Task: inverse folding
């Protein structure tokens, strides 16, 4: 009997293949970065073919680490950067344009035009989402309108659309001629084309965005057999789970009960709370979205607060300013000073997401004096994540009526002890890091494992979850509120930097 599960974790900056045992422990892991393409200010693209090559490389390399064969894996799950949009030729598999990444802001003018008739919340009742540059629908529309003959070819069923999970699934199951063209409810819910209640593509939405139905994938649950891999390194292995990355982390953190929440600290920051089997409409700038659907069980919904730039700000400090050599160095640099020296950094590089949804905002550094140095800037970079998380958490508590007693964390930044202590201080509640930190990939593996009977039920998954470390707040209420007030003041300085078209 197969002893392991595999998970493809296709992220914004890299792709990984992680192999887990039954206890959720990592047996092997391989990672490859891919190029970040910036054709113009505000535009962010990826080469889908490079991502597919990296995916094949990491699968082979991870299996080789432990001399494993495809038969050693009971199933494979996929988790992915959400909203990132790719259209490809049905016959050849060649993309007709680079993938447009979730961070990309090129459709800002279209957001303004659509918002003019019905407001920014025009489609929120159906989709749970405001009009924004973030989601897939307007990215698809842009490709159809700007790539020669794309719209005509789409209408002739020559093209396929998908988020990155869908593109990888199609190739993994054979590509041209036999590839499975499907996605799961969590990824579909981020396109702004799926109805939250029916879990199907919505005809009025397709008409409004002018997107041909024939290019869209089939929507399935998050935990079922999508097909069997034809790739030699995975030959015959069931692809049995798909979850968007943040929903995968929610599953990996075993947040299966209403009111349970997690925050993932990665390129961006994403706080999700399970709200049960009915969507909760947000009145405080959050998203209503799918949490997961396991097989034929009812779908579970979530409230989500999405922050565009958190870990990416550390990368910017490293790559654009050269203040640190590697991302992990920011903790030591920030520790060279005792506070932020009055400096606040609002990283609205691609606008502000939750709870503001202001696509015309841009990044600002406020409070600079001659006293400020690179240590203060490093501390302000970390505090930007902390402040943004508090704003989202407060909005979530208002929408849900549930006060969180602690916050479960995961993602690449949770190894930064200073950041986690700052977060506990600013939230005035404990912050918890689980023993297994790779919760995004783990969630995809869990979904696949449930499909094939590798795990019996959700309670068995819960038994794998354990605390690695807990940070408790240690900051006076007066100082906490003073810092938060100045942060809110700095945020207002970022508003409306980009003039309307």
Result:
């Amino acid at each position: 009997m197969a002893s392991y599960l595999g998970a493809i974790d296709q992220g914004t900056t890299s792709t990984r293949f992680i192999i887990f045992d039954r206890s959720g422990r990592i047996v092997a892991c391989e990672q490859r970065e891919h190029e970040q393409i910036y054709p113009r200010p505000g535009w962010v693209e990826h080469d889908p073919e490079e991502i597919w090559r990296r995916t094949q490389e990491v699968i082979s390399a991870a299996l080789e680490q432990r001399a494993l064969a495809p038969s050693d894996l009971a199933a494979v799950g996929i988790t992915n950067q959400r909203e990132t949009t790719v259209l490809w030729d049905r016959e050849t598999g060649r993309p007709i344009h680079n993938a447009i990444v979730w961070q990309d802001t090129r459709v800002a003018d279209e957001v303004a035009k659509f918002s003019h008739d019905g407001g920014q919340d025009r489609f929120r009742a159906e989709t749970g989402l405001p009009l924004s540059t973030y989601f897939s629908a307007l990215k698809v529309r842009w490709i159809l309108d700007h790539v020669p003959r794309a719209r005509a070819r789409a209408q002739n069923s020559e093209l396929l659309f998908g988020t990155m999970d869908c593109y990888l699934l199609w190739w993994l199951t054979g590509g041209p001629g036999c590839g499975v063209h499907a996605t799961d409810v969590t990824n579909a819910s981020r396109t702004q084309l799926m109805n939250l209640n029916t879990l199907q593509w919505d005809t009025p939405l397709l008409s409004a965005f002018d997107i041909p139905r024939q290019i869209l994938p089939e929507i399935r649950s998050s935990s079922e057999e999508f097909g069997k891999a034809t790739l030699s390194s995975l030959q015959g292995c069931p692809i049995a789970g798909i979850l968007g990355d943040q929903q995968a982390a929610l599953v990996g953190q075993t947040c299966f009960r209403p009111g349970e929440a997690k925050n993932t600290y990665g390129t961006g920051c994403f706080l999700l709370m399970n709200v049960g089997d009915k969507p909760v409409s947000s009145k405080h700038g959050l998203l209503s979205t799918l949490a997961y659907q396991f097989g034929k069980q009812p779908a579970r919904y979530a409230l989500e607060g999405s922050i565009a730039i958190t870990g990416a700000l550390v990368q910017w400090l490293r790559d654009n300013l050269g203040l640190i050599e590697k991302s992990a160095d920011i903790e030591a640099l920030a520790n060279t000073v005792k506070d932020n020296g009055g400096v606040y950094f609002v990283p609205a590089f691609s606008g502000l997401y939750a709870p503001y949804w202001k696509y015309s905002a841009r990044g600002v550094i406020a409070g600079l004096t001659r006293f400020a140095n690179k240590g203060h800037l490093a501390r302000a970079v970390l505090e930007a994540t902390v402040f943004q998380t508090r704003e989202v958490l407060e909005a979530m508590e208002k929408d849900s009526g549930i006060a969180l007693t602690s916050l479960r964390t995961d993602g690449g930044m949770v190894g930064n002890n200073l950041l986690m202590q700052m977060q506990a201080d600013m939230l005035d509640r404990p912050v918890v890091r689980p023993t297994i930190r790779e919760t995004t990939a783990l969630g995809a593996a869990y979904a696949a494992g449930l499909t094939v009977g590798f795990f019996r039920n959700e309670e068995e998954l819960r038994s794998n979850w354990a605390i690695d470390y807990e940070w408790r707040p240690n900051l006076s209420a007066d100082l906490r509120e003073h810092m938060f007030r100045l942060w809110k003041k700095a945020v207002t300085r970022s508003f409306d930097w980009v003039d309307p078209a």
Q: What stands out?
A: The longest helix spans residues 374-400. The mean pLDDT is 93. The longest strand covers residues 26-33. The two ends are 61 Å apart (CA to CA).
